[in-house]
Amino acid sequence: MLRGPLAALSLVALPALGCSSIGQGQAAVDHVWIEGAHRVSGGDIAEKLATTESPKFLELFQGVVYDYEFFDRYVFASDLARVERFYRAKGYYEAHARAGRVVERGKHVSVTVVVEEGPPTRVRTVRIDGLASVPKLVSDLATVAMHDRVREGQVFDEDHFKDAAAAINRALTDHGYAYASVSEKAEVDVLTHTADLVFAAAPDQPATYGAVTIEGLGSLPEKPVRAALEIAPGTPYSAAELAAAQQAALDLGVFSSVEVTPDLPKPPPADHIVPIHVKVQGTSLRGVHLGGGFEFDVIKTDLHLLAGWEDKNFLGGMRHLSIETRPGVVLFPTRLESFTTPTSFLLEERTIAHFHQPGFLEGRTNGIAQAEFNIGPILLVPNPPSSPVLGYREFKVSAGLDRAFGKLYAKLTQNVQDELPFAYIGSVDPALSEVVISYPELELRLDYRDNRIRPHSGFYLANDLQVAGDLGTARDVRVHPEARAYVPLARRVTLAGRASLGFLFPFNYGGQETPVILPANPTAADTAAHSAWVKDAQVVFFRGFFSGGPSSNRGYPLFGVGPHGPAPFYNESVSYQQTVNGCSITNGTTPSPQCYVPLGGSTLWEASIELRFHVAGPFDVATFCDAGDVSAAQLDVRLNRPHLSCGAGARYDTPVGPIRLDVGYRIPGAQYPGFGTPAVDNLEGIPGTIFGLPIAVAFGVGEAY
Predict the structure, then answer these.
(1) Residue 204 has pLDDT above 80, yes or no
(2) Where in the chain is the domain with CATH 2.40.160.50?
(3) Structural element, H or E, at residue 542
(4) Which of 288, 380, 482, 611 is the most exposed place for a label (fewest CB within 10 A)?
(5) Are 424 and 459 in contact (CB under 8 A)?
(6) What span, in angstroms and rounded, lies between the C-alpha atoms of 549 and 555?
(7) Shortest CA distance to 134 belongs to which of 175, 183, 185?
(8) 261 closest CA partner among 323, 213, 196
């Protein structure tokens, strides 16, 4: 899919192209290679060098946009000493670095650093002294924190050694010992290549909070801030609680920065009371944003505008109200590859109003409410017929609570949505009717990523649970867990993975998988059976799972993976963006294959792995493989239908996140049994091609996961 991020970007500044030159007596560095680095990453070593490669614009051209990096023999000699110091810090005390080769080609040089690592120094013993006065629980937590960083038998690493001391100190300060200190000592035997590590802890006495002062509020009220901080004078001190208080104040959304600082004089006062100082810096409370964008892919082409307004102190009390509208027009039937002049202009619109009440019920529990009104045509297949074209008017409201518990975020809401079908072109099947779905929803997210926009390490777990009840058309249970993990392979290399499951358990629909097509002269029984099937299939489409698209399986368009069949329905969750074409099913014949549309399924699995490389400046590249399947049956995880696609992409960093371009290729022989057979493809879906190739293109803002 090709998507324009203009709606999310107010301005994208492109660097002015310029060229730099190499002066007389200068030599540009083309390459820096590291040889002999087996136990320590060559990339980590290169990060320590002042002699670096000249960056390339678009990884092709030196001296364009970016300046050259010039070679200096004196700097390079210092680099060799830096490499040896770096190795010693990693536990290799006998490591040596020398210049292997400096190859000159005119005004350009290539440099090779040869490393002789030598034997590693390993930790022989490790212990903590000074914890006899603290409770066993705290002592055990400190010991676990230490062993998470250093333990017997590991290669001695100075950074891990210092991290262990800091972790022991955090275990003490998190549990009341505000004035605790930890020192570390390492005795290294270079002959036996061993190290004995000792941490000396001085916990002092437990402390309590004192008075809390807040600075920098200006005209903003103090009460919501104190409620969010949840720091009560006289209660036990905790550094972890102070960090959570700082994040809770930031989550109010009205401050650009928050500093929560304990007053810890030395020596400690006799009462061990710790005053807390909070310094905040406000941000703009009101704003208007305007923009626009486009969508151009194998399914549809649209142009749209974006307008929004927000007030972060609506009616005082730091209440947040935002309203955003996105009017647009679909150029029908224009699309990627089969580009044709539009014959119809289909109006679409999305409007969302969101209200956030901080400190609802208690300090860190927020009240939330949201209302949406959306109108959009339904186009989900690459080559729809010209008529009919269906649309839905969608009304959605939700209200509930959300709260953060450290790294865990929870949101509980009651949701009601109303779907009203209508015809943009032609007429709709008379059996189509209004669908009302009412369900409570519980969302849970556990986020241990180091960065939410550009994660390099950590993990993320989430689950979405919905229970649709008797107040609406559907009764079911829908659960959708997801896991993500990020492993730093080097400073500039990240291995990212994602896995997801989805299970739908319907109670009053989903039993009619075979289409009920009306004959030429239908009886009352035929009409009743057809209407029952239409209602059943329509609800499945609103509640079922789908796979494919830029944040799912990137070798397929949106909803390209899963059960297909003749049905004039589509997925409510993206009704303002994507749609299903409606084919007439009243002519007594089975619709042609082009009328087979995504139906939604009851079982979903998805898996993805991606290798991300930071190149230079704002540029990153990535390679990926995505897989997944959607089955109509319940609890039917079909691993023999991987729908495997692999590809590559590029990212350009901006203030709103990386602009991402990915191209996914569907691997031959790794799709599903019977792939390429018309009868099977009709049931699985024909995802279409781009210029005759089995690929899909995604262009947007933000990483895929």
Answers:
(1) yes
(2) 286-701
(3) helix 524-543
(4) 288
(5) no
(6) 8
(7) 175
(8) 213
d(CA 168, CA 170): 5
Residue with tokens 């006495």: 205
pLDDT at 498: 98
In contact, 522 and 508? CB cutoff 8 Å: no
Task: Give the residues across from 403 on adjacent strands.
Answer: 365, 410
The string of pLDDT tens digits covering residues 442-461 is: 999 999 999 988 899 999 99
pLDDT digits (tens, 9 = 90+) for 347-371: 999 999 999 999 898 889 999 999 9
User: Residue 430 has what pLDDT?
Assistant: 79
Q: Are strands 61-62 and 320-332 parallel, antiparallel or unpaired?
A: unpaired
112-158: pLDDT as tens digits: 888 888 899 999 999 999 999 999 999 999 999 999 999 999 999 99
pTM score of the predicted model? 0.80
H or E stretch at 229: helix 223-229
DSSP code for 318: T
What local confidence, expressed as pLDDT, does residue 342 receive?
87
* Nearest CA-CA partner of 687 in 696, 698, 674, 679: 696
Using the structure block, give the residue that is written with the tokens 């371009």.
661
Helix (H, G, I), strand (E, B) or coil at 574: helix
Query: How far apart, in whole angstroms, are the C-alpha atoms of residue 665 and residue 652?
Result: 22
Which tokens belong to 634?
Answer: 């319940």
From residue 349, alpha-carbon distances to 103, 346, 379, 421 in Å are: 62, 10, 15, 15
Per residue in 280-290, pLDDT tens?
999 999 999 89
Closest to 577 measured CA to CA, from 383, 375, 397, 385: 375
- Sequence-distant (6+) residues with CB within 8 A of 285 are 254, 311, 312, 313
Strand partners, 344: 332
Q: Work out the number of other CB atoms within 10 angstroms of the CB of residue 84.
A: 19
d(CA 504, CA 632): 10
* Helix, coil or strand: residue 569: coil
User: Can you spell out the DSSP letters for 557-621?
Assistant: -TT-BS-EEE-S---GGGTTT---------SSSPPPGGGEEE--BSEEEEEEEEEEEEEETTEEE
Angle at 542 between CA 540 and CA 544, to 5 degrees: 55
Q: Which tokens in the block code for residue 350? A: 């999305």
Q: Say which amino acid occupies 221.
A: P
Taking the CA of residue 447 as centre, how many other CA atoms within 13 Å lie in the half-sphere pointing to its CB? 17
Q: What is the mean pLDDT of residues 276-304?
A: 88
Alpha-carbon span 573 to 538, nearest angstrom = 13
The reply to whether omega before 267 is within 30° of 0 (cis) is yes
Q: Where are the beta strands (DSSP E) in 337-475?
A: 344-357, 365-377, 389-405, 408-425, 435-447, 458-468
CATH number of 122-202: 3.10.20.310
**CATH topology for 286-701?**
Porin (2.40.160)
Query: Which CATH number describes the domain made up of 208-282?
Result: 3.10.20.310
CATH of domain 2-116: 3.10.20.310
Q: Convert the pLDDT of each residue in 468-517 to its tens digit.
A: 988 888 999 999 999 999 999 887 899 999 999 999 999 988 766 666 76
Q: Is the peptide bond before 430 cis (omega within 30 degrees of 0)?
A: no
Q: Is the pLDDT of residue 518 over 90?
A: no
- Mapping DSSP onto H, E and C, the string for 159-200 reads HHHHHHHHHHHHHHHCCCCCCCEEEEEEEEECCCCEEEEEEE
Lowest mean per-residue pLDDT among 11-20, 59-68, 171-180, 599-608: 11-20
The ranges of the chain annotated as CATH 3.10.20.310 are 2-116, 122-202, 208-282
Q: Token digits for 643?
A: 């729908």
| Residues 450, 458: Cα–Cα separation, whole Å | 6
Distance (Å, rounded) from C-alpha 117 to C-alpha 489?
A: 20
Higher pLDDT, 212 or 560: 212
